[in-house]
Amino acid sequence: GENVEQHPSTLSVQEGDSAVIKCTYSDSASNYFPWYKQELGKRPQLIIDIRSNVGEKKDQRIAVTLNKTAKHFSLHITETQPEDSAVYFCAASKGGGSNYKLTFGKGTLLTVNP
Amino acid sequence: SAVISQKPSRDICQRGTSLTIQCQVDSQVTMMFWYRQQPGQSLTLIATANQGSEATYESGFVIDKFPISRPNLTFSTLTVSNMSPEDSSIYLCSVEHPGGKETQYFGPGTRLLVL
C-alpha cells in the first residue's frame, strides 16, 4: 500500500521567517495530496490541497508544490505568525471510490517563536 | 465543506466494556471514514463506511473489534469492543466533500481513555 514519509518531525522558526515541510509518497497512482493543520486538542483542518495535474498551488501565505516524477510534495508557509504553530500533516490518496482513503505522514510540529 | 458532529466528545471506560461513537453530518455523503489517532501520533484509517454495504477495514483492524454501522447517508457509528488500555486514543470520523470530490473533512473527534 501507499507509504508517506514526512520531514522534519519538528520545525522551529522565528516569526516572519518561512517554513517548509516535505513529504514523499511511494505509490505512483496517488493523485491527490492534501495538507491538514491540527492545533492542540482540535480536529485536523484542511488548509490546502493539490491534484496531480497541477505543479503548484498558492493560497495567500501558503503554497504547495508537487513533483510527480520524484514523488514528493512540499508545503511552504511564508511570513509565519505565532498562530501558524500547530502540527501539520501531509496525506496522499488515489482518488475515486474507495481509493479516496487518505494515507497520512507522521506530522510536523511547527513552532513559530514571536 | 460539511458540518460534522461526534458523540460523545470524550469518555472514560473500564477495560472489557464497549463504547459506541456516533458521527452525524449535515448533508448526504456517500463515503464516511473512521480514523484513530493515538496520543502524539498521526491518523490511521480504521475503515471506510459506505451506505448500504459492509464497511471495508484496513490491515490490522477487524470487524469484531470495531463494528461499524452506516444506516443512511448522514450517519455512522463505530463501536470499540472489549476495550483495553491500548484502545485509548482519539477516534475521528471524516466525510468526503458533499460534491463527491476526494476532499475529506473531519469531525471533532472522540477522546477515549480506557482504564
Quick structural summary:
The complex is a heterodimer of chains A (114) and B (115). By secondary structure, chain A is mainly β.
Q: Can you tell me about this structure?
A:
The complex is a heterodimer of chains A (114) and B (115). With 114 residues, chain A is an all-beta fold. Chain A contains no helices and eleven strands. Chain A has strands at 4-7, 10-14, 19-25, 32-38, 45-51, 56-59, 62-67, 72-77, 86-92, 103-104, 108-113. In chain A, strands 2, 4, 5, 9, 10 and 11 form a six-stranded mixed sheet that branches. In chain A, strands 1-3-8-7-6 form a five-stranded antiparallel sheet, with no helix packed on it. Chain A is globular. The N and C termini of chain A lie far apart (41 Å). The relative contact order of chain A is 0.33. With 115 residues, chain B is an all-beta fold. Helix content of chain B is 0%, strand content 51%. Chain B is built from no helices and eleven strands. In chain B, strand 4 and strand 5 form a beta hairpin. The termini of chain B are far apart. The relative contact order of chain B is 0.33. The model of chain B has no long low-confidence stretch (mean pLDDT 93). Classes of the chains: A mainly beta (114), B mainly beta (115). The A-B interface holds A 1, 32, 34, 36, 42-46, 49, 89, 93, 95-96, 98, 100-107 and B 31, 33, 41-45, 48, 50, 56, 58-59, 92, 96, 102-109.
Mean pLDDT of chain A: 94
Helix content of chain B: under 10%
Radius of gyration of chain B, in angstroms, nearest whole number: 13 Å
Tally the helices of chain B.
0
Mean pLDDT of chain B: 93
Report the major sheet of chain A: 6 strands, mixed
Largest interface (CB within 8 Å) is between: A-B, 23 and 22 residues
Helix/strand order of chain A: EEEEEEEEEEE
Low-confidence stretches of chain B: none
Termini gap of chain B = 36 Å
Give the number of DSSP strands of chain A: 11
Oligomeric state of this protein: heterodimer
